[in-house]
Structure formats: structure tokens, C-alpha cells
Amino acid sequence: GLGDWKALREVARDSGQRQQSARGIQRCEKILGISQPPSKSATPAPASKPEDLASVFASISLNAVKSGQTSVNMQTENSVAVAELRKKDQAKRDEEDQRLELMEQVEAELRRWRDGKQQNIRALLSSLHTLLPEFTPIGMHEILEPARVKRAYMRAIARLHPDKLAKDVDLRTKMISSSVFTALNEAWDAFKAQENIS
């Protein structure tokens, strides 16, 4: 541990015990899994200076010693973290590729729903179920009054908000929901201006 390291450092300063302390350091490094470059000779050089041994001690990571981590453990953890990052990056690339494949289909569906009624919130709300079947159809007669339009708009927006979508919703639905969210907000702004609603 740390106490042994300090004791060895003090012993290394005594010229009579340098060789013995060098062998002790090597044993500690072997046990801790700290690899040092191999020496040119099997026996330690008798003329080593205390500064040299101090540099060997300085190369030992105290944090690794204290936590019990060895270079092998750290490499394993790093490789697991790198693998996880690569996996997430690949998932993002796959989603982007899928998004590009779906783009034309989604745009066509949105144009069919939106064209001719961009600023008409009543028409957009009453036809929302044709684009997203999970929405209950709203009859035009149900949203004649501004207060009912606001209520229907608020309910739709609450379900379509990107933060409110279920985590497991498919990419097509995410893309459509995002565009519908924007279209409804723009139509609502136009409706508020037309009806003098603040």
C-alpha cells in the first residue's frame, strides 16, 4: 500500500540498501500490475542514484494504487466505455439513415394533411386523425367556439410535444408529430391574431 511505498522510498535513499529496495519495488510493481520497461540486465545497476529510484516511484500512479486499479483493469474499463460509445454512435447513425429513408414518405403524408389549410386550425384539428390514427376524430361542429378550439389545440399539443412522446414510439411517428406540432402552433398563432385572443 501507500505506507510500503513511503518506506521503500526512504530505504532507496540509503546507498547500502539500493539493490534490495530496487528488487522490492519490482515485486510491488509486479503485484500491482504496474509494468515498467524491462531493464537491460537482470541485476540492478549498483550505481543507481536516489533520484532514479524516486522517478520510478513517481511513475507509479498513486490513484491507481489507492483504488486498487491496475493498468489491466483500467484498460478493460476503457475498452468497455469505448465500446459503449461506439454502440451509441452507431445507433444514432442508423436512426439518421432511417430518417432519410422515411423523409419523402413523411413529407408526402404531411402535405396531404396540411395543404390548403395551413392557417385553418379548425380544419387541421378535425383532420388530425387521418394522419395520426391514435387521435380521436374531432367533428368541425365540436370546435366552432374559440374556447373549444383552444381546448382541442391544447390537448393535441400536449400529446404531440417531443418531450411527451413515449420512448418506444417509432421514428415515423416522431417525425410526423414534430411537424404537426409546428404546423398546429403556426395555425394557433394565426387563429389568435384573427380572433383577437391574447
Question: Would you kindly provide a written description of the structure presented here, covering whatever features stand out?
Answer:
- The protein is mainly α.
- Helices cover 69% and strands 0% of the residues.
- The chain contains 9 helices and no strands.
- Helix 1 (2-13) runs antiparallel to helix 2, helix 5 (71-114) packs across helix 9 and helix 8 packs antiparallel against helix 9 (171-195).
- The protein is rod-shaped.
- The N and C termini lie far apart (71 Å).
- Residues 40-48 have low confidence and may be disordered.
Quick structural gist:
With 198 residues, the protein is mainly α.
Radius of gyration: 35 Å
Largest sheet: none
Order of helices and strands: HHHHHHHHH
Overall geometry comes to rod-shaped
Low-confidence regions: 40-48
Count of helical stretches = 9
Assign a percent range to the helix content.
55-70%
Strand content: under 5%
Number of strands: 0
Task: Give the averaged pLDDT, no decimals.
Answer: 78
Structural class: mainly alpha
* Cα separation of the termini: 71 Å
Keywords, separated by commas or semicolons:
single chain; 198 residues; mainly alpha; 9 helices
